[in-house]
Amino acid sequence: MVSLLGKNGAGKSTLFLHFNGIYEPTEGKVLIDGEPIDYSKKGLMKVRQKVGIVFQNPDDQLFAPTVEEDVAFGPLNLGKSQEETQEIVTNALERVDMSGFERKAPHHLSGGQKKRVAIAGILAMNPEVMVLDEPTSGLDPRGSSEILQLLYDLNKEGMTIIISTHDVDLVPVYSNKVFVISKGNILKSGSCKEVFDDVELIRNANLRLPRIAHLSEILEKHDDIDFNGDYPLTIGQARSHFNNLIKN
Prior knowledge:
This protein is an alpha/beta fold and 248 residues long. Helix content is 44%, strand content 14%. It contains eleven helices and eight strands. Strands 4-5-6-1-7-8 form a six-stranded mixed beta sheet. Strands 2-3 form a two-stranded antiparallel ribbon. Strand 7 (177-182) and strand 8 (185-190) form a beta hairpin. Helix 3 runs parallel beside helix 5 (111-123). The two termini are 35 Å apart.
């Protein structure tokens, strides 16, 4: 589960739109499984079965009169029969907890529900990789947690998940690897610890440390608590650190 971390306007969305051929690069190549993307109609169809993109605004993605028709669009275009497609749609909506909404109009749904339907539309294509641009944008805290839990579960089932975000507090909880982008350039990549240990780079990219790490930094400066620069990134890591301090 990979996070692309950068401020608004850093180039996250533009980069993502190259991942399955929506944009074609003017320089360089996009490789999938070591092979450059074939931008013919047939080639793009093949790529989009492997790499699915969920846009930041689900209204840019949902277009059919009903939820069922929207999720069915991809499988039908792949030549699936009506019976196969119905089974695929049912399964995809179950996985995103949207069963029972088949006949609903997408524009009558809440923001979180629209995100789930957009994800279901990608799941219906059975991709190996799902790319999501700001998946928690516009959602309340509970909605954000539910979407991220869904992505976490999909990842545990074997799907590669790539998200863009500027919410640094979510990244250490869910991500295995992080890329920091600024002005269209990747500044650094690595584990959450490797990236957030570089405090100067994070702040130069107009980002901040996760709140737990920032609090630890303040405590180290003002309360003589020595973290040796190894700031916890999550509540669990902070609890473990302070339990060790108490024991010692």
